[in-house]
């Protein structure tokens, strides 16, 4: 379903962003789609979409710039738009608010032509000043907004942040609908500017003082009500810039992370689409009716057990490899995760442009693991403490690993903590080993920066230090030729795979359940819960009609 | 219902659970933790696994047997702590009155007004989740109930004849409180205390729901039940059997409390 | 009576002061910070952003300084601004307090309407099938964890019968209130039934009833007349305690039913180490408890004049 009137325009000049995006698209043949999600049909307007913000019982903030939480971003899809967007049909970043972009020869300056029919919910047209103001807001001196790191590479951003300049020199208005962004070094702006953290907001609304309880954007729905801790709703925005969209008259998100209750609500027909847990997946897949509405998505998240390379025994690469050989991932994925995961064969996940389809995973080979441990001089066995949260993907997986590790002489004890405490312990270098899921897309290079020795511990959590690896990354970053770049990225990923600073577990398979009356739900590999709500429509059987 | 039936039924259930807990190593066919084997994950009940297995392939019957130890221990330890603290404070506050009553009342209000979960959360963050945090969080905070009940009772009984006469006979305050007042107010207290054992077991289940209970893989009935709630449709036995055990335990303690009440009630015999 | 009120007010102020101090210090020293909680999700917020957040919120200042700042605001009635939402905590609380209050009232109403008569009749028919049935029901009510009871109610009333919505707050009507209120009310109902039964039996066995009975008065009338004076103290205590702690004790049910209550705000804010929000939520919970408590104490005075407050 190609929907965007703002689809990428290939200009006369060589289009770096487009090339990169297309290489990303080429690598994702493996993603299964449910038949009905692709099914054609004439979209019907009307009805109220019943969606879910499924990762917590409250939203963190209604200011899209201030939150990087997945469920807040899912909600932002209804109210806000960014310069770029993730297009699930092609698995790539596409232009959203601009009709075209031109790239300078050095690949550092991007000139955008905005669409002339974009309006904010307050009725005012979106112009170049709004883009510049929105990005400047994120980079304002004293700002603590999440997207600072996305925009820091813009020329003059650091000076502005530090209060040394009055404007961000890299952001320039050319006319009301034209502006340019200049970066310090080559960057693919699509990867940086497609999420809600860089949404374009109207200054007057943000500064009105009521923005946090009454958000205004240029998205398909206007804000109606937020009952904190329960629900947020909106109604169709008549001046939305995509003709005929959104299809639904209204939208409601129930905010909850209780999947047993969500299951009941979905079966009762109160929810149109929701993500499923492992058990929900098993159950719905077995059901002749419910299984028709399943959408399976290979997400760009890599689940792993991180290891602190500054601590023994993880300073020895043989120990880390031994752990990777010692555990039977297949049975964990099949039995515990109910096949709601894909075995990891590297840091970069299946849909990533840097994914290497030919790489072989670590085999389940306890003998080899024992041999490696013996080589490392650990014949008497070895023990460590793993920090986990009380979740299936964390403590559950650790418990399932324990017998396999015990079989090769590794004793592991769990330390269960809150998610925030876990991160703190990792960042301070206090946790010897931990379980985590990392976002590893869509930009493969920034995903691999998790092992860049120059990055702080909060990014390079394992404390991986290898200048050879850093050099490969830098080379990839400086390479303009897409094929060569992908080759370098794969080389870097292979390097990490061999050095094994983590136990490679799986890439999450997200599963969406959709009702028979719901159409146009996309499979978003960056986060399945973030659904492009402007294209979702309800047929005549929807209960909300 | 015959008088004493509660006592026997309740006592019987509790005795069975006690035996299960004490002889768990003899009764349980598998180790509750280390028997994890994904090859046998979510096996339905059968000859090999009497009550089936959980998602890690652990025998549920064995986990329930060992879980009896943990759940009983939590219930009893917590309730002993609570009752000891609560009754001493409540009795003395009601009897002595004055500034001591003020302090106890203030303390009671403080403990009552702050939800147990706040203490639980803080303790988990400091000590880490687990049995010690759980025992402190539940055992040091839930005494307010028995404290207030005993205080209220003392206040109504203080002016009654038997207390007055004990006083005029020259007995000291400790004697009056624990020998005269306590037996006379023990009826409701026993009800509260025995139910408290059950509710402490239940509280652990609720905290498990919020991820604050006994740390897996150690089996507690509440924890098993809570973590199984999503499996209800996939593998119902994982949820049902711990749920039944929990139900039986709480039922047993309540019946026992009722029975004990009939037995200990100083006036009860006159009722026939 | 005025004296009692003043005394209560003083106590309340003291309690609040202790709670506020305790909570602030406790949640400031335990592991985890607001900044670290932001990285708990799969997406990484960069270290620089985290540093900026900490600087902006003054989280690097020494604890006494932070506490002083908070107390200075509180003294002026300012609950501060939430770290996470950046909104005034008072605004965040206003909607949630009402939702919590409605839920608690509905739950206690359910508990009283069912539990009180059940307990009373069970006691009057002590040893009969009614007694057995009632007490079995009460015990069962106490033996099922709230999240299971809630799930079962959901399955029956929304999935199978389609009578009521599964979860959510709706537009503030009754429809969405019923299931969570019953779930929350089951345990207090059971407790109330049992306490009432025990209290009525106690009353039946007391000296003056026996005296009256020996004079040939009807038992039911006797109990009814004296219930107010004796058993009510016990029953009132139970109701007061149950009701008073409901705002903070309904977290599990709020989570299950996506109910926008104070309890889930508390839990979420603790997870985020969003201290102003934690403080605000606890303050509301504590104040509500103290208020109910005071009302119950005043009711004691009315019901049973033998209880004397100095």
From TrEMBL, chain A:
Alphabetical UniProt keywords: Signal
The organism of origin for this protein: Fuscovulum blasticum DSM 2131
Official protein name in the record: ABC transporter substrate-binding protein
SUPFAM superfamilies, per database record: Periplasmic binding protein-like II
Signal peptide: 1-37
Domain Solute-binding protein family: residue ranges: 93-453
Gene3D superfamilies documented for this protein: Dipeptide-binding Protein, Domain 1, Dipeptide-binding Protein, Domain 3, Periplasmic binding protein-like II
One of the protein's GO biological processes: peptide transport
UniProt record similarity statement: Belongs to the bacterial solute-binding protein 5 family.
UniProtKB/TrEMBL annotation, chain B:
A GO biological process held by the record: transmembrane transport
Membrane topology: Multi-pass membrane protein
Location in the cell: Cell membrane
Keyword Chaperone among UniProt keywords: no
Membrane spanning stretches: 6-28, 117-141, 189-214, 234-256
Protein name per UniProt: Peptide ABC transporter permease
Keywords linked to the UniProt accession: Cell membrane, Membrane, Transmembrane, Transmembrane helix, Transport
GO cellular component labels: plasma membrane
Main location group: membrane
Domain of life where this protein originates: Bacteria
Domain ABC transmembrane type-1 per the UniProt entry, residue ranges: 68-257
UniProt similarity note: Belongs to the binding-protein-dependent transport system permease family.
Pfam family, one: OppC_N
Organism: Fuscovulum blasticum DSM 2131
Family annotation (InterPro entries): BP-dependent_transpt_permease, MetI-like, MetI-like_sf, OppC_N
From TrEMBL, chain C:
Pfam families noted in UniProt: BPD_transp_1, BPD_transp_1_N
GO annotation (BP), single: transmembrane transport
PROSITE patterns: ABC_TM1
Family annotation (InterPro entries): BPD_transp_1_N, MetI-like, MetI-like_sf
Keyword terms, alphabetized: Cell membrane, Membrane, Transmembrane, Transmembrane helix, Transport
Localisation: Cell membrane
Presence of keyword Transmembrane helix: yes
Residue ranges crossing the lipid bilayer per the database entry: 12-34, 101-123, 135-157, 177-193, 231-257, 277-303
Annotated ranges, domain ABC transmembrane type-1: 97-296
GO cellular component, one term: plasma membrane
Membrane association type: Multi-pass membrane protein
Similarity comment text for this entry: Belongs to the binding-protein-dependent transport system permease family.
Main function: Part of the ABC transporter complex GsiABCD involved in glutathione import. Probably responsible for the translocation of the substrate across the membrane.
Protein name according to UniProt: Glutathione transport system permease protein GsiC
Originating organism: Fuscovulum blasticum DSM 2131
């Amino acid at each position: 379903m190609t929907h965007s009137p703002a689809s990428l325009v290939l200009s006369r000049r060589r289009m770096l962003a487009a090339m990169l995006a297309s290489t990303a698209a080429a690598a994702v043949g493996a993603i299964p789609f449910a038949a009905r999600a692709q099914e054609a049909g004439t979209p019907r307007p009307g009805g109220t979409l019943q969606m879910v913000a499924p990762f917590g019982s409250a939203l963190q903030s209604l200011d899209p710039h201030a939150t990087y939480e997945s469920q807040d971003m899912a909600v932002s899809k209804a109210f806000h738009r960014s310069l770029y967007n993730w297009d699930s049909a092609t698995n790539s970043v596409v232009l959203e608010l601009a009709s075209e972009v031109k790239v300078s020869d050095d690949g550092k300056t991007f000139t955008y032509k905005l669409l002339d029919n974009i309006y904010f919910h307050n009725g005012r047209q979106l112009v170049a000043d709004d883009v510049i103001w929105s990005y400047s807001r994120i980079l304002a001196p004293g700002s603590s907004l999440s997207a600072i790191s996305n925009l820091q590479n813009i020329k003059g951003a650091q000076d502005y942040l530090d209060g040394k300049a009055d404007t961000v020199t890299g952001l320039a208005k050319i006319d009301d609908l034209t502006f340019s962004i200049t970066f310090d070094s080559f960057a693919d702006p699509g990867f940086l500017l497609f999420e809600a953290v860089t949404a374009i907001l109207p200054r007057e609304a943000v500064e009105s003082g009521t923005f946090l309880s009454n958000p205004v954007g240029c998205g398909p729905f206007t804000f109606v009500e937020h009952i904190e801790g329960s629900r947020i709703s909106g109604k169709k925005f008549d001046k939305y810039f995509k003709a005929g969209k959104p299809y639904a008259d209204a939208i409601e998100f129930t905010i909850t992370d209780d999947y047993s209750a969500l299951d009941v609500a979905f079966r009762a027909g109160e929810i149109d689409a929701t993500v499923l847990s492992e058990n929900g997946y098993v159950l719905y897949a077995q059901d002749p009716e419910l299984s028709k509405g399943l959408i399976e998505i290979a997400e760009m998240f890599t689940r792993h057990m991180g290891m602190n390379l500054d601590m023994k025994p993880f300073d020895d690469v043989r120990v880390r490899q031994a752990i990777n050989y010692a555990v039977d991932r297949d049975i964990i994925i099949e039995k515990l995760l109910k096949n709601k995961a894909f075995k990891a064969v590297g840091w970069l996940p299946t849909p990533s442009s840097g994914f290497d389809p030919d790489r072989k995973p670590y085999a389940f080979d306890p003998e080899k693991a024992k041999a490696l441990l013996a080589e490392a001089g650990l014949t008497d066995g070895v023990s460590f403490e793993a920090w986990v949260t009380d979740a299936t993907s964390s403590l559950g997986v650790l418990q399932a690993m324990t017998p396999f590790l015990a079989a090769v002489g590794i004793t592991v004890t769990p330390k269960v903590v809150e998610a925030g405490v876990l991160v703190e312990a990792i960042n301070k270098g206090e946790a010897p080993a931990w379980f985590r899921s990392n976002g590893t897309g869509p930009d493969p290079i920034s995903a691999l920066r998790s092992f860049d020795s120059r990055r702080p511990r909060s990014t390079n959590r394992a404390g991986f230090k290898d200048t050879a690896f850093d050099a490969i990354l830098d080379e990839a970053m400086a390479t303009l030729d897409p094929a060569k770049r992908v080759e370098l990225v794969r080389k870097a990923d292979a390097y990490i795979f061999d050095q094994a600073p983590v136990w490679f577990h799986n890439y999450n398979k997200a599963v969406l359940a959709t009702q028979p009356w719901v159409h146009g739900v996309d499979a978003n590999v960056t986060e399945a819960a973030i659904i492009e709500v402007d294209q979702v429509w309800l047929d005549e059987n929807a209960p909300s009609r | 219902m015959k008088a004493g039936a509660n006592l026997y039924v309740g006592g019987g259930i509790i005795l069975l659970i006690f035996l299960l807990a004490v002889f768990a190593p003899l009764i349980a066919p598998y180790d509750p933790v280390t028997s994890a084997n994904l090859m046998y994950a979510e096996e339905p009940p059968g000859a090999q696994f009497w009550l089936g297995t959980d998602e890690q392939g652990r025998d549920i019957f064995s986990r329930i047997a060992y879980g009896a130890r943990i759940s009983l221990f939590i219930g009893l330890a917590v309730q002993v702590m609570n009752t000891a603290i609560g009754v001493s404070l409540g009795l003395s506050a009601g009897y002595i009155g004055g500034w001591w009553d003020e302090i106890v009342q203030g303390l009671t209000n403080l403990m009552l007004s702050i939800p147990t979960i706040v203490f639980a959360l803080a303790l988990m963050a400091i000590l880490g989740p687990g049995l010690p945090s759980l025992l402190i969080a539940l055992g040091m905070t839930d005494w307010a109930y028995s404290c207030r009940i005993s205080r209220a009772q003392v206040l109504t009984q203080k002016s009654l004849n038997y207390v007055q006469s004990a006083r005029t006979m020259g007995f000291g305050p400790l004697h009056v409180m624990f020998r005269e007042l306590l037996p006379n107010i023990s009826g409701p207290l026993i009800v509260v205390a025995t139910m408290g054992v059950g509710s402490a077991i239940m509280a652990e289940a609720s905290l498990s729901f919020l991820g604050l209970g006994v740390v897996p893989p150690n089996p507690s009935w509440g924890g098993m039940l809570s973590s199984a709630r999503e499996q209800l449709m996939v593998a119902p036995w994982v949820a049902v059997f711990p749920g039944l055990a929990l139900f039986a335990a709480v039922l047993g303690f309540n019946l026992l409390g009722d029975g004990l009440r009939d037995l200990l009630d100083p006036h009860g015999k006159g009722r026939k | 009576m005025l004296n009692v009120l003043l005394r209560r007010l003083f106590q309340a102020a003291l309690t609040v002061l202790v709670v506020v101090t305790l909570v602030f210090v406790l949640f400031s020293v335990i592991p985890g910070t607001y900044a670290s909680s932001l990285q708990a999700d799969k997406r990484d917020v960069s270290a620089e952003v985290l540093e900026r957040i900490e600087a902006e919120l003054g989280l690097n200042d020494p604890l006494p300084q932070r506490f002083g700042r908070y107390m200075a605001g509180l003294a002026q009635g300012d609950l501060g601004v939430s770290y996470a939402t950046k909104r005034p905590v008072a605004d965040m609380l206003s909607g949630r307090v009402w939702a919590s209050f409605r839920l608690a009232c509905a739950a206690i109403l359910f508990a009283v309407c069912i539990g009180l008569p059940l307990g009373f009749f069970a006691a009057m028919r002590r040893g009969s099938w009614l007694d057995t049935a009632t007490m079995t029901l009460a015990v069962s009510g106490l033996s099922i964890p709230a999240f299971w009871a809630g799930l079962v109610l959901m399955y029956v009333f929304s999935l199978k019968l389609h009578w009521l919505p599964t979860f959510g707050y709706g537009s503030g009507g009754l429809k969405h209130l019923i299931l969570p209120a019953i779930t929350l009310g089951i345990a207090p109902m059971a407790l109330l039934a049992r306490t009432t039964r025990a209290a009525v039996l106690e009353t039946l066995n007391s000296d003056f009833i026996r005296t009256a009975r020996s004079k040939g008065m009807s038992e039911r009338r006797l109990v009814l007349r004296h219930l107010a004076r004796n058993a009510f103290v016990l029953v009132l205590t139970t109701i007061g305690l149950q009701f008073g702690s409901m705002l903070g004790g309904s977290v599990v049910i709020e989570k299950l039913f996506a109910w926008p209550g104070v309890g889930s705000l508390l839990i979420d804010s603790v997870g985020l180490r969003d201290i102003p929000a934690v403080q605000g939520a606890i303050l509301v919970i504590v104040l509500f408890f103290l208020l109910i408590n005071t009302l119950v104490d005043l009711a004691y005075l009315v019901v049973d004049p033998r209880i004397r407050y100095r």
